[in-house]
Design goal:
Layout: H1 3-21, E1 27-32, E2 35-39, H2 47-57, E3 63-69, E4 74-79, H3 83-98, H4 107-127, H5 134-151, H6 158-171
Antiparallel strand pairs: 1-2, 2-4, 3-4
Helix pairs in contact: 1-6, 5-6
Length: about 180
């Protein structure tokens, strides 16, 4: 494999892995006492997603009411609980929104794999006090392996390629 081929493959792999973690999700648009409006790109003209969100929010005792607007892609929450409870609800909805429907083309196997990596990522974050996550550890491992191949074995371009992959993984990191 030539250096340019490895570079192109590294860029492509980094972009694909980055897509798994990107996506802005629920963005707070407006906040006033007891009322919040969030925007989510998946809500725009998506009746299935809106229906699924409605099912998740129905019966939530912390909410006085909620309104989903598919035209603007917004979710309006009216509540009488603490802001921390609303943050937990939004965190749950965020996680829910990233889960694919088992009937979708992504399918059950993909959903299980993603769920498994997500739980590994959460356990890494919890056990390291939010210092590391799965993406960072994989990047560090690729960086160390690539550096070892470059400096001790003199291999090229596979060593620089691994360094590039680790950089690409870290470059797309939002938090």
């Amino acid at each position: 494999m030539s250096y340019l081929t490895g570079l192109a493959l590294g860029i492509s792999a980094g972009k694909q892995v980055g897509k798994l973690y990107r996506g802005k999700g629920f963005q707070l648009v407006h906040n006033s006492n007891g009322r919040r409006r969030y925007y989510h790109e998946k809500l725009v003209n998506n009746a299935d997603f809106a229906r699924n969100l409605e099912q998740q929010l129905t019966g939530a005792s912390a909410l006085r009411s909620f309104t989903i607007n598919q035209i603007t892609g917004t979710l309006l929450l009216e509540y009488s609980c603490s802001d921390e409870q609303i943050e937990r609800i939004i965190g749950y909805l965020e996680e829910f929104s990233r889960r694919p429907n088992p009937l979708s083309p992504y399918g059950k196997i993909g959903s299980d794999i993603r769920s498994g990596f997500s739980s590994v990522n959460k356990s890494i974050k919890n056990s390291t006090g939010l210092t590391f996550d799965l993406r960072t550890l994989v990047s560090l491992w690729l960086m160390a392996w690539g550096a070892n191949k470059v400096w001790t074995l003199g291999q090229r371009p596979s060593g620089p390629q691994m360094l590039w992959w680790s950089y690409s993984l870290l470059k797309g990191r939002d938090s």
